């Protein structure tokens, strides 16, 4: 790659850095103009994690805040809106908070965390201590804000309202309030058992700042979930919510096809566009199809190092903690529907747009599962298969990366189930390492019959093989004293699974095939021939294995067959 190319903005959240450090920027500044033309007093944008919410919030701050550098926006879309720029660029006091780190093992710690955040933001306006437009009593209260002296809850609850009033008095202009990741404290409070206390605090914190605040021009909030109005946003008037349902501003959170093509072309890897689309596209927000920006940028960086770099998952560690809990609580019916999704099918579900965390603890399991689908949809684990026109949503897994998350979750369900019967699992492991193919087939078949598996639908053959491969692999990896390799180079190819039992100098090679339409014999012949022709046992020999077992494993639905040879 040309060394003069712009750097890719991995993890960059400050808008100013794009111009200062010459990062590649996908221009989303038209969002500013659309926001100004359509805004309410309070504007909430909900999107999954890693879709550019934080960067957009910082972009708004950089545009509106008094003292901004106008050169940051030179040549960008917003610069074409000359009248709008003259009226608004650098003309507003701006309060900007990210609540992503407001957390703690208990409410008191989280309370202090929120107080420290407000204190840090107040310190940006230290000049207010010397303002000749503020009375002395206001200066005293401002000093309390900077010091983080929030002994009384009422003072913290009213802190943003106070700060916006002081800024309005000093500048003679009402303030803009920007709050990123507004729902994170609630998510973490739910996980740590103090949700009612945190909900009460956040409700009052928002209410005073956003509802009865004459010093507020407008506010923008971002988050993953749309928390019900009665839970957090009680009594707010002119409150506009733009979720993934809505067409307004849809293209400003995520990358479009054209934007991804342009980026790949810039870095000379445009030939990898089909792979990028398969792995990271598929989200439908409003009337726009978008990619996850985090995925695209991270993968593009890998491609600039090697144009042949394989596609990798980048988003899967960004999930809400609540996803883990509600998936673990899934009913058998829900697990079956997830199986359908993995197979490439769609499921029709009612989506509840307004959620409360207390709903997730409903004693009625069916109600809990209804909320499960709504959360999976809101957080990017599912998307609309087609444009939503009202009624029930037709939901699908958006792309290959998210598909892997589901597959891994199902494998975890499976592994937890079978390894809980430790005696049976130990017999299985012993059979594998001793070449007892009959027992391996019997027990793995029993495990499959008790689990869910990839359905025999239009799903691609390699997808099905990978699923069974992953299950068998997980069972072996549960034995901590073994060395288990997946798709490691050996001979002239990459065997599915290599197993090394160091103490016993025993090795196994397992090649997994999907027996299309139940054609086990053909699948097993193919597996064993592949082991032989590609010399898959070479690595085991190099590692000094004296006993080597070769297995061909063919699977179809919940049934398996094995072929076996001893080297």
- The percent range for helix content is 40-55%
Strand order, biggest sheet?
2-3-4-1-5
Number of strands: 15
User: Could you name the CATH topology of the largest domain?
Assistant: tt1808, chain A
Description:
- With 567 residues, the chain is of the alpha/beta class.
- The chain folds into four domains: 93-235, no CATH class; 251-314, no CATH class; 317-402, no CATH class; 421-566, tt1808, chain A (Alpha-Beta Complex), CATH 3.90.1570.
- The chain has helices at residues 16-20, 30-38, 53-64, 82-88, 107-123, 136-147, 153-157, 159-171, 184-192, 195-210, 257-266, 273-280, 293-305, 321-328, 332-342, 365-378, 400-420, 422-434, 437-449, 461-477, 520-533, 538-542; strands spanning 42-46, 94-98, 175-180, 216-223, 239-242, 283-285, 288-290, 347-349, 383-384, 393-396, 483-486, 497-501, 506-514, 547-556, 559-566.
- The strands form four sheets. A five-stranded parallel β-sheet has the order 2-3-4-1-5, with helices on both faces.
- A hairpin with a 4-residue loop joins strand 12 (497-501) and strand 13.
Can you tag this structure with a few keywords?
single chain, five-stranded mixed beta sheet, five-stranded parallel beta sheet, 14% strand, 567 residues, alpha/beta
Concise structural overview:
The chain is built from 22 helices and 15 strands. It has 567 residues and is α/β, with parallel strands linked by helices. The strands form four sheets. Strands 2-3-4-1-5 form a five-stranded parallel sheet, with helices on both faces. Strands 11-12-13-14-15 form a five-stranded mixed sheet, sandwiched between helices. Strands 8-10-9 form a three-stranded antiparallel sheet.
